[in-house]
Amino acid sequence: LEKMTDLVAVWEVALSDGVHKIEFEHGTTSGKRVVYVDGKEEIRREWMFKLVGKETFTVGATKTKAAINIDAVGGFAYEYTLEINGKSLKKYMENRLKTTNTWILNLDGMDYRVVLEKDTMDVWCNGQKLETAGEFVEDGTETHFTVADHGCCIKAVSSGKRKEGIIHTLIVNNREIPEAVE
Question: Would you indicate the residue range of the signal peptide (predicted)?
């Protein structure tokens, strides 16, 4: 099998529904372009005479827009850059740090990745958007949901500092879960 013989780039992209692996094959002699998302072929083009350009596709349950740019960098060398929602991967991930919180927790021997989208207050766990119940409390808000029969709560409290804004804390079984860095 000639699978992955022309693999030129691999990226890991953390989205609300999980971390996705994007692989790109570029056959500079055959003109072949293949995009895989999480091991599944999304795009295949054979015999492309133009070796530079752009391939666009979507990633994950949220159908996030993605594009791979193929640029010549002299001679027969090429540079491959991934864009997510029209931003470079680096810019997208920097922005994501501001708009989401992510926690990794282990319950009953299983790992769970919980993501809060701060703009919508949507909560995701291992690729599924969860049902939540929000309530106002004395010092802020609480968003309640369940993971593996465990009651969970994201507390949102003002930091008291304008630059820091609101602090989100995940509490499971009366225990504060540290935020993960992806």
Answer: none
pLDDT surpasses 90 at 50: no
Domains present along the chain, CATH in parentheses: 7-85 (2.40.128.180), 99-177 (2.40.128.180)
pTM of the shown model: 0.84
Q: Give the 3-state DSSP-derived string for the chain, with helices as H, strands as E and coil as C.
A: CCCCCCEEEEEEEEECCEEEEEEEEECCCCCCEEEEECCEEEEEECCCCCCCEEEEEEECCCCEEEEEEEEECCCCCEEEEEEECCEEHHHHHHHHHHHEEEEEEEECCEEEEEEEECCCCEEEECCEECCCEEEEECCEEEEEEEECCEEEEEEEEECCCCCCCEEEEEEECCEEECECCC
Beta strand 110-117 pairing with 122-125 = antiparallel
**Pairwise CA distance, residues 91 & 40, whole Å:** 26
